[in-house]
Amino acid sequence: MELRQLTALVTVAEVGSVTKAAKLLHVVQPAVTRQIRLLEEELGVPLFQRTRHGMVPTPAAEVLIMRARRALHELDAARAELRPEPGEVSGIVSVGLLESVLDILAQPLTEAVARRHPGIELRLFTGYSGHLQQWLDTGEIDLSLLYNLSDTPSLSVVPLLREQLWAVAPPDAGLCADSPVPWATVLAHPLVLPVSGHGLRALIDRARSVVPMAPRIVVQTNSMLLQKNLVLAGHGWTVLPAAGVAADVAGGRLSGAPLTAPDVERSVVLGLQHRNRLLAPVEAVASSLTRLVSDLVRSGAWPSARPAATADARPRPADG
């Protein structure tokens, strides 16, 4: 099993096409096909199903792809760390960000790391908290923001903040950040909500269960952007973390207000793999992220957020 075979496998899986993979890898199409065929012969199992929608990995391939991504990531990181400039922290760091914090964190984090540690290459991944935790467990990412999580056997957690959920409505609803909205008011409107199984949906369902009103859910989606667009189009109200709508409310595209009766908060934490020591570039990015979140909360740029009890703790090596 060779690195070029694993690279071909992962690239085809990501783009769903041998032709596209060949272009990305700067090789001819038959070379990619040959690498996949050699892997299949070595392992004795088919790795892809060819469908009208493209190349679809088989269950056996999914197992190999997960481990191949981790191996390729570790090798990329090792190459970067072995060629640092004198006195410079260098390497590749993969960071998981919740979709709801992208607007408020992605650009400032990129700027902060580029300014303090120009030798570090950031790779930003977004997803639900459950997906990010899984990627962190398997080593596909180095650190991640997660929510409502404590230490696990494989992960060390640094609490960062607690934030309220907001009711989100079209601009003409006139919701205001300094005037909390009761759940009963929200439930009186059609609702656009995350799909069942989403962590945010679990918080929403728990809160509305104490209000004696049946919700009228008109749309469920797995996309926060789609939630906001459907609200803007007049299909109903929704519920989101404050950070996910701060820019839209400030720009007048939506209106929003903290929810009350009952109040609902979620905790945002920084998840790190349990290791005897953090690699220098990972520790540098973790510190930059922690500092940035603290600054945003303290300045009020992260609406309806307050520091967690131990949010001032800096990331440190976890016990093995």
UniProtKB/TrEMBL annotation:
PROSITE patterns: HTH_LYSR (PS50931). GO terms for molecular function: DNA binding; DNA-binding transcription factor activity. One of its GO terms (biological process) is regulation of DNA-templated transcription initiation. Keywords: Activator, DNA-binding, Transcription, Transcription regulation. Residues 1-58 form the HTH lysR-type domain. It comes from the Bacteria. This is DNA-binding transcriptional LysR family regulator. InterPro entries: LysR_HTH_N (IPR000847), LysR_subst-bd (IPR005119), WH-like_DNA-bd_sf (IPR036388), WH_DNA-bd_sf (IPR036390). Pfam families: HTH_1, LysR_substrate. Belongs to the LysR transcriptional regulatory family. The keyword Coiled coil does not apply.
